[in-house]
Amino acid sequence: MKELYIILDHTRTILITISDGALPSNVGGGGNVRNILRRVFSIMKKNGWWEKFGMEGFLQIFELHKKDLEGIFGKFPEYKSFAQIIQVEYERWRTSDDESVKKLEKLIKQRKGKLSLDDWIQSMQSHGIPADKIAEVSKTAIPGGLYYEIALRQEKTAKKQETILYNTVNIPETDNIYYRDTTCRAFEGKILEVFHNVTAKNIPNIVILD
Q1: Cα distances (Å, whole numbers) of residue 78 to 13, 19, 70
Q2: What is the pTM of this model?
Q3: What pLDDT, on a 0 to 100 scale, did the predictor assign at position 159?
Q4: What is the pLDDT of residue 90?
């Protein structure tokens, strides 16, 4: 039951990220997309669900997610190559899985059965092996801070120097009413400040509401 929910959660994440323009790869956020997708493939294989679903049935999960999320996001725009992206990633995973596991087994032997956090991250990012698979092959539990460490490293490499364009210290924080009432579609608010847009010829078009 837990793994059914993992698949539903992960496929929904994949739908949103790829629809937003992300692509599976071995680096950065693309590496996260690939790892999440390969975890799904691995769980499907372990439970014998590929035989029941097939690729056509698997892709149908994404269509059902679209229907489920339509009430929140509206109708998803057509993404003609979405199915092809999933199919290509599946073939890459299927053909590279055995080779990657051999590399992992060799590493485990070198480390005498004890993988460091760096070994886990390298196996996931360089060889595309899902954490669940590493745990299965190494017969050890997934380290507690694994995903936090991966996110931390990506943030360090991707984070840019923050540039403060406008001084908002003396302006009260905006009341985000949509957090209290997600059905609200209209409201009355006061204009607290209007800034000249320094990135658009100083046009006064940045409006701060209460």
Answers
A1: 17, 9, 13
A2: 0.59
A3: 58
A4: 93
Residues 180 and 133 in one domain: no
Domain boundary among 131, 158, 185: 158
Q: Are residue 132 and residue 192 in the same domain, yes or no?
A: no
DSSP code per residue over 186-201: -----EEEEEEETTTT
Number of domains making up the chain: 2
Q: Residues 48, 70: one domain? A: yes
191 pairs with which residues across the strands?
Answer: 209
170 with 105, same domain?
Answer: no
pLDDT bucket at 160, cuts 50 / 70 / 90: low
Determine the structural domain holding residue 194 and report its residue range.
163-210
Q: What is the DSSP string of 25-45?
A: -SSHHHHHHHHHHHHHHHHHH
Instruction: Confirm if 192 and 209 have CB atoms less than 8 A apart.
Output: yes
Helix residue ranges, H only, 47-190 = 49-73, 82-110, 117-126, 131-138, 146-158
